[in-house]
Every structure is written in C-alpha cells, then in structure tokens.
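Let us work through a complete example step by step.
Step 1: write down the sequence.
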Amino acid sequence: MQDTLILLNRLASIVCFVILGIFIMKRNILTDKGKEIITILLNRIALPAMIIAAYVKIELTKDVIFNVLIVIVGALLVYLLNYIFALISASYHRLTDESKSIYLNGALHSNTAFLAFPLLEAVFGTQGLFYATIYYMIDNILFTTVGMRRFTTINGFKFPPVTIALIIAIVLMIIFNLIGFNCVTTFPYLVCHDLGQMTTPLAFIFMGMLIYEYNLKDVLSNHLAHILVGVKMVIIPLIMAMILLIFKQRLEATLAIVILVQSCMPSLSVLISMSYEYKQDTKLASSLVVVGHVFSIVSIPILFFIFNLLFK
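Step 2: predict the structure and record it as tokens.
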C-alpha cells in the first residue's frame, strides 16, 4: 500500500509539471530561446549527469549481470512484437516509402530516456534507473543502426549526449568495480547527482510545452497515429505483462516493471526533426509523437498502476 501511495504521489507531481509546461507556453513566459535552453539543460546536462550518478554506484554481481541479460531479452522481444505489428499495418494501409520509414521507426523506437528515466528513478531509485538505461541502450543501438537505414541518408548524424554519457558511465562503473572504489562521497559524484535531480521537472515541463505547441486538432486527427499508439503503448505492453507473469516467481518485480514501463513509452521526439532533415512524412511523424505524448499522460499512470499491482 505504501509503495502504491508513493507511486501515485510521484505521478501526481509529474502531471503538475506537465500542466506547468502548458501554462508557461500559454502565458508566453518563455521565448523560443528559453525553450531551447531547457532542452539543452535537459539533454546535455541533467539527463547525462543522472545516468553517470546512477551507474558509478552500481556494484556488479552475478545477479545484476543476469538481470541485465533479462532486460536485453525483454527489450528485443518488445522490438520484435512492434516490428511484426508495424510491418503488417504498413502493408495493410499501403504506405509510401516516405511514410513507411516514419511509421516503422515510430513503432519501434521510443522516448525511453526522456520520459521513463525520471519516472523509474523517482519510484525505484538507482536500481530502476540502471536497468532502464540498459533497455535504452538496446533501443538506441537499434535506432542508430537499423533505424537510421530507413532514412535516405545518415550524413551528419551524431550520437546524442545521453548515449555518450551512457558509454562514459559504463566505463567508470567497470573501473570502479575493478579497483573497489566507492565514489558516493566524492565531489564529482555529488555534482552529477545534484544536476541529475533537475531531470524530472525539466523533462515533464518540456513535455507540456511540446503538447501546447502543436495544432492538436490537425495532429490528433491522424487515424494511423491512433492505431500505432494504441497498439504500441497499450496492447503490446499488456502482452508483455502476460509473458512476464509466467516467470513472476523467478523475476524481480522491479525488473519486470522497468521492462513494461519502457515498452509503453511514446515514439521518440527526434522523429519530427529527422523527418524534416531526411525529407520523410513530417505530418505523420508529428502526429505519432504528439498523439503518443498526449496519450501518455493518461496511459502511463494507469499502466504503471496495473503493473505495480501485478508484480509487487
């Protein structure tokens, strides 16, 4: 009961941050430059710092390594289920090559870092965040290899700061485990930890700003987006929940919930800018991202509550 109350309080605070982001845009409190500063603080400073602070505390044991393998298998299974659905749906709707590439990437790759990390870290702490980053790493590897090939060119593509931070964090974690170094009382760790605390409010304030920015009437009317969002963010996570319930006795609750929460995230936000850069279906990309993020305000809290009941 106490865990459920903590979860509900966390989710309530997240909704408040989203509302604050909408209020900021409605009142024109921030200019476009201010919005750009928020994204820089979030993506280049706060989120990378949170990841580094989480990883350097992890003690590598046989159980942890085994759990990492489970997360990897879970991520690949979610990818496979989404891929099968997206191929069938794209074929049925006879999408053009420009729309198909957006549809497949929107179905397969999610905003796992931007939305899931703050939520999982808030509820499950360092352990939850650590396993969440493993899921993100698999998704990111697939996107930067297979996903990018769906676009016409990859000229100018760069790894995001979150990925770079993840690589640095993994290296530091391995080194610290090998030499037996505890860094939690050091100055660099405290700086990273404190900077990482900005992630949750910044992430969901920006989400509110993003939702307000679009013409929701046009964007939300895309039926292809409705189909994809419903399957990707509800049906497939529930299928995954049924699969994981089979192994409930052998599976840590935190591990199962991390996999499931990651599986119900909306399409990655960068899909919109990518569609512009590589001359793909920008309208479809905008619909997938915005519909998914608007829907996530309702779907993620409800599914999180269901997953918590099933596995706790």
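Step 3: interpret the result. The chain has one domain: 2-311.
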